[in-house]
Amino acid sequence: MDKxxxxxxxxxxxxxxxxxxxxxxxxQHQVAVQENTGTATATIQSTDIDIKTDDEGDESYSPVVVxxxxxxxxTYENRNVFPGGFQRWRDSRAWxxxxxxxxxxxxxxxxNYNPNxxxxxxxxxxxxxxGWIWGIVYxxxxxxxxxxxxxTGIRRWRQRNxxxxxxxxxxxxxxxxxxxMKGKAVTDDLETIRAPFSDDDCVIAEYEIEEYDDDDxxxxxxxxxxxxxxxxxxxxxxxxxxxVLVRPDDEATYDLDPEDRTTTYVDSSGKEPDPIRxxxxxxxxxxxxxxxxxxxxxRYSQNxxxxxEGVYVxxxxxxRDGASSSTENPDMLAVGKVDEDMMEEPMFLISDDExxxxxxxxxxxxxxxxxxxxxxxASFVVLLITFGPGLGVSLPVLF
Length: 399
Known about the structure:
The chain is an alpha+beta fold and 399 residues long. It has helices at residues 3-35, 93-102, 132-165, 274-282, 355-360, 368-387, and strands at residues 38-53, 59-71, 74-78, 108-114, 117-122, 177-186, 193-194, 201-202, 204-213, 222-232, 235-238, 243-247, 253-254, 262-266, 298-305, 310-319, 333-336, 349-351.
């Protein structure tokens, strides 16, 4: 399962629910302006300022103007100040007072009403609701998130086809270019690296540090990632027919067996094991303060590729530095990042898992495409609602 992809979808869904309120108010405003094409002279009956106080004691203000108007011999009373059937609030009392002051009791004003339903009207149009900017922020985030989902889906599907359809080569018969290899990770004359959270020596280490954040509200807490990354060092792949140098790179894809992932839980009041403490100090991450409950507790997770462990490598075989470009001697070849202008590099992937599991984890990866497409549509709908009427586009009336 692509946990990162699922996480992106969850975040986008949360933002969709959050942004729906702001986009909804903009939609109501635009439809009201679109429909209320009739005009009439209204007489102001009364004015006031509504006040509401939130849980923290902060006050918001909304102008109240009650007006009366006549359409086709029938008299209507309305208190809708702005387009859309909702009140607008701001934390500025002066804003509300200024609007009320412009419409004194007994004065007249030109209002806009709906010819099909004259009871629906508004007094003035001061532009879009103030929350429109959050709708644009959502549209941008949704578009970027959708692009990431689609790109990830295509990339992982391409990886699946490469892994599934590329035959495994023996080291003794390696040729230049993209190759699939299987064997053991050995170090021989190369140095290993220390695992971040244990005393193990390894050639690759994926790690993640998470910290628990106990939210102030009743929604409960959550784990947030403090730091994550991959440590790596060159190693040889030995398949029994020969050895070839593998040079891991920060841009490579590391798909390690999830069952090998280990996690150390450390209470905020406890002391980290020595390996963890050394890593945190070297990386200058800092230690959490002691808090009650789960607050500031940490999880230290790592996944390692150890010496003599089985590995799967898909990468581009190229000559080592100083070797002839036509060499076929495995001792003079290496697998690693290459200049794409010099040689094709469809994928650089390192794993300690079985090939069938790598293929299986990418079986349903195309779900990224339709889901990403839906969020692209959502972002364009938001932009259409916000800017469409200004460009002459009529919005559909839902009710």
